[in-house]
Design brief:
The protein has a single domain (2-323), classed as 3-Layer(aba) Sandwich (Rossmann fold), CATH 3.40.50.12370. An eleven-stranded mixed beta sheet has the order 1-9-8-7-10-11-6-5-2-3-4, with helices on both faces. The chain is of the alpha/beta class. Helix content is 40%, strand content 20%. The radius of gyration is 21 Å and the shape is globular.
Length: 338
């Protein structure tokens, strides 16, 4: 049941020329394998509000064979092994170059470079994202059935679990061309909210973009959060205290977006965070849902982490999961070869 909705106007829209906050993405790693889902991820970048100047690494991973295949492969002659390896790497490089060419035509001010990894796809993406110190990883969501969306595919699921930065899981847009963007921002009163709000308010959105800030009063999540973040758990999803705290959270979020020049509507729902969020995104025909997840050492492997994954898997649109990270060291150090 929806508890309340508040429509709030704002003054001036966010001016992308204004210096963005520290949460803005500067390095984006795009996982590309030539599939329909990967192509949808490239198209989705135009709806992500990313800055005009950006470092982009397009990574195509030449996957390693399974152990039983390696055993057969090992019996082949060394020249044959080398020929197969060269062919696989060449194909991966061509895929990365094709994606780079497309991105350069769409975003001429981006600094776009191809990269090839020889590893299992998931670990290749996770390892390069960590070594290159990416701010955001972009990957396509494969499959359209409910079951496929829940699984997200083994690669996307592994990347989601282990990538050390934010991740955008892109899905095709089914709304008519030319219509304004619709962005849902999910908050829950946790430490991840600040990173989500900072990320969204730091993007360069078109003036016609609409925003909804959504929270769900979910007693199960509140109890889990209380054990990991020393928050006081709400004892019942319809309690007066729970509703009051939710409204206070919405007011705080609305004020922060207003200070960034963005106009938002606020919505409060009851029970089942992932399902409610997916329902609202579908009903409103949202282009993307932004939500946060705790960083390392903040209870990320618990029910909180599973709930965020379920929300990302069930959403009918693209989802960007903003990860809270510890402050970066003073120096990045040498980068690995691309």
């Amino acid at each position: 049941m929806q508890l309340n909705q508040a429509n709030q106007g704002a003054g001036k829209r966010h001016d992308p020329r204004i210096a963005r906050p520290r949460g803005v993405a500067k390095r984006v790693l795009i996982a590309y394998d030539g599939s329909a889902g990967a192509d949808a991820a490239l198209a989705d970048l135009g709806r992500a509000g990313l800055p005009d100047e950006l470092e982009v690494l397009v990574l195509s991973v030449a996957g390693q064979a399974r152990p039983e295949v390696v055993g057969c492969f090992a019996r082949a002659t060394r020249p044959a092994q080398q020929a197969v390896s060269r062919a696989v790497e060449s194909l991966s490089h061509r895929l990365a170059e094709q994606a780079c060419s497309r991105l350069r035509s769409l975003f001429p001010r981006w600094k776009v470079e191809p990269a090839v990894g020889v590893d299992s796809p998931a670990w290749g993406i996770v390892g390069r994202a960590a070594g290159w110190e990416a701010d955001l990883v972009v990957t396509g969501a494969h499959g359209q059935s409910c079951c496929e969306r829940m699984l997200l595919g083994s690669v996307a699921r592994r990347v989601f679990a282990d990538v050390p930065c934010s991740i955008r899981i892109a899905r095709p847009c089914h709304r008519r061309a030319g219509s304004g963007l619709r962005i849902v921002v999910a908050v829950d009163g946790s430490v991840a909210d600040d990173a989500v709000i900072e990320t969204v308010s730091g993007r360069a959105w078109p003036a016609t973009t609409e925003f909804q800030v959504v929270t769900v009063v979910d007693a199960r999540l509140d109890a889990a959060r209380a054990s990991t973040e020393s928050f006081v758990a709400w004892q019942h999803p319809r309690s007066t205290v729970a509703e009051a705290r939710a409204r206070l959270l919405m007011e705080k979020c609305r004020n922060r977006f207003r200070s960034a020049g963005l106009r938002v509507d606020t919505l409060i729902f009851e029970k089942d965070f992932a399902r409610r969020l997916a329902q609202q995104a579908k009903a409103w025909e949202a282009d993307c849902v932004f939500l946060g997840r705790p960083g390392p050492g903040r209870g990320g492997g618990s029910i909180l982490e599973r709930t965020v994954f379920a929300a990302a898997a069930c959403a009918p649109c693209s989802v960007e999961v903003v990860r809270c990270r510890a402050p970066a060291p003073d120096s990045r150090g040498p980068r690995p070869n691309q």
